[in-house]
Amino acid sequence: MQARVSLEDVSALARGCAVLGTGGGGDVRPAAVAARGAIREYGEVPLVRLDELPGDALVLPLSGIGAPTVSNEMIQSADEPLHIRDEIERIFGRPPAAVMSSEIGGGNGVSPVAWAARLGLPLLDADAMGRAFPEVQMVSMYVAGIPANLVVMADVLGNVVTIRPVDGLWSERIARAVCVASGSSALMADYVLTAAECAGAVIEGTVGRAIAIGRATEGAQDPLAALEAELGAVRLVTGKLTDLERRTTGGFARGTVTIEGTGGDRGRKLTLEIQNENLVAIEDGVVRAMVPDLITVVDSQTATAVQTESLRYGQRVTVLAWPCDPLWRTPKGLETAGPRAFGYDLDYVPVEAIETAGSAA
């Protein structure tokens, strides 16, 4: 029997995508509402593996682009994926055969269920990040060396923009400018590839992985411990959010978060640097974890992930960190989405190596 994303899967998918979002990717709550509504209207969404698609089938990667703080307030149009689908069909002379999430993290990992249902297409069990990243070129296809020769964007007003960038960095610059002109929120398709071209260039199994992460805490006596075990994560600190500086600029949510330890972590202080996502965790001047490894803030009682735009003074939270997909630890992966790609003068050290060194010390 073919796998499908059902109404019962949406809650687990949303919880898992929120965790994988590392603070970004958009709020999962409105995305989950839209996904349930689309499933009720159009039916369950087939979930397909890459090897189940014909080699020449077009895969349509979709994601929202912009500042999460804006996307929470600007309601997307249900027609945006239709506008993009029509433009892709005009360009390629045939319609796409499957939808793929460009990033499995946050609302961008959940919304493709609604988009696929609306388009009457299956959802590919894969994405291009294995988490969430803030910039357009920070995808596995760029790391794999595939030319970024097409970006199609649509906004809530029905504007459709087709971009032919010379490379991935220019795709970010131009797409970000278009996004800002659209109010810092738009829907985007980039790296429209055949299934054969996707092989080895996307991260497979991530939709199923997100659902498994979401289900790990269901009915658990200790949800935080269950989530930590499912992820193989390091617990960086448990405490209270005591300081927050956040601003929206250039289509990003940027800022700094301070968490002071409580209980067994009393006396400790962890600082998080954010650009839509949590990028670097620092304690007493020592880096505890850094991008591209995943750093997520969760509610200490429920283990529910807290997005950067939902952080508030006084929240009782725990910060978890765990290894990224191996693709991001390659030289090209680190050049694309390592700490220096975000302006941090840091040599990347895997989170598990930092933890081992700290334990030994």
UniProtKB/TrEMBL annotation:
S-Me-THD-like C-terminal domain mapped to chain residues: 168-351
SUPFAM superfamilies: CV3147-like (SSF160991)
Organism name: Microbispora oryzae
Entry superkingdom: Bacteria
Domain S-Me-THD N-terminal, first and last residues per copy: 8-163
Name of the featured protein: DUF917 domain-containing protein
Pfam families on file: S-Me-THD_C, S-Me-THD_N
